[in-house]
Predict the 3D structure of the following.
Amino acid sequence: MFTSSVRAHRRLNQNCLNGLAWLILVLLALPAAWIILTAFRPATEVNASPPIWIPREITLDAFTTMFGLNPGVQARVAVESYMANSIFCAVFSTIVSVAVGTLAGYAFARFHFRLHTASFLALMFSRSVPGIALSLPLFLLFTRLGLVNNVFGLSFVYIAINIPFTVWLMDGFFRQIPRDLTEAAYIDGCSNWAAFWRVDLPLAGPGLGASGIFAFLAAWNEFQLASILTRSNDARTFPPGLYAFTQQFTVDWRGMCAMSVLMMIPAIVFVILTQRNLVRGLTFGAVKG
Amino acid sequence: MATNASVNLPSSAAARRSRRPAPGAGRWFPLFLILPSFIFILIVIGFPLIYSLYVSFTPYELLKPKSLNFELSTALNNYQTLLNDPVFWKALLNTVIFLTITVNLEYVLALALSQLLARVSFGQSILRTLLMIPMMFAPVLVGFQFRWFFNENLGLVNNILGVFGLTGHAWLVEEPYGLFSIILATIWMNLPVMTIILLAGTLSLPFELYEAADVDGASAWQKFRKITLPLLAPFTYIALTLRSLDVSRAFDIVRIMTGGGPGNRTELIWTYVARLSIDSTKFGLGSAMSWITVIMSLGFTVYLFRQLVKSRIVK
């Protein structure tokens, strides 16, 4: 049916479209590439004018300086303790918030009880409260409890902050599991708890993964509360550590880039591992209401 | 046979019923499931909110412990101070400009980009990976990165402009540019998630509808307007709801890029909370300010959830 000129025209259109998409996405990725490349540049290239796009030499200088392996260089940050604190807070709060939030998500997906919708909305609202509005009252409360500048105190906050989103995601995932399976389990004599534990929970595996990743990254990246609730390197996590670094009079931009790269590692790993599940997890509710 | 069956059926149903969990246990079970979540939230979110509501009615200053006392006559003083405070109005105006531009532009750009990506025939998976790159950046990293790029003397932006013989600006200092730099950083950070959700939605739309539209001779624009856009509604609201939960994350970016300054030029309502209650230790005034931000978030979230519920029911 198609004449060759129509086909050629279509191919041209398709090529333009491909080219445009590539151009836009390369531009979008450029700032990130600049940060990552800078972390591996020699110091002389960092603020060179005109800018040097491709590093002429790859060096780990910035990283060795950051970990204090270069004798005689002063710009040292307590990056090991930031990392340890960040990992502890993120892992601990993720485990607890996913466990607790999954239970509630199951309740919202499977049962009808009084104030079902109202309590769901209350949970979602609690997620949208700005962290800065909570920080000072929490600081005063934690001062009384001795939890200021304490990784357990910070983790406790992150658990609560991550619960609403976990509930939202898990509610969507549990709704995807056919109710018939749960009812079959009841007929076979399972209690409510056994039906949840043996039937629904194993089927919601991908949901647990997705919620876990979101909780981890939210805790890993959190800045507002961490900057108030941590006072010293004993408990300070990456984001306030980075902030302290930018507040110095002369900023070591390459050192900052190296620190950024370190801080990005978990996100990179998660994004690569879960590209597909991430999208499914976010759009579950939309495909089947 | 027939009578046997009719006799057997009710008894087996009764047997089934007896094996079900006791009705009382069933009623308490969901409460038992949601209780732990609510305990955590009451302590970490409920208590601070109530406490700061109380404090917002007192002239409390952190360094003067005795100033924490409630008097009916002065209860609304903090709110009154805020309403007469030009910086408050400046922060509010900045926030409205900031949210209007970022959320709308993010949505339009994400919609366009998702339609483009759905039609790409070469390197789809690489493009999607490229798209996810900004998602790896924490808000603090985004803030740091753009603070550097827009730096007057060392920044990449002025450096590139210099190559072309153009003079740059002090982007983060001059009046409209400061806010626009922050808007650009925010859009860069949020565009990927929105695009990915809309792309997933676009790819899940039933193909037959487009075939039918082709048969009817619909134009590309008509197909987009009459099929794609209405069917994407639930995805749109999921994307916007997710986005609305994170509006206050702008705090991280602004705190690092400009700190709300210079001279409150880039002040947003969240950075103003920090300025009042932490930097100048006026906790009472800061609490009043933070309650204003809480009420605004509440309105925003309730509105978007209503839309979300509506779009799900239609489906």
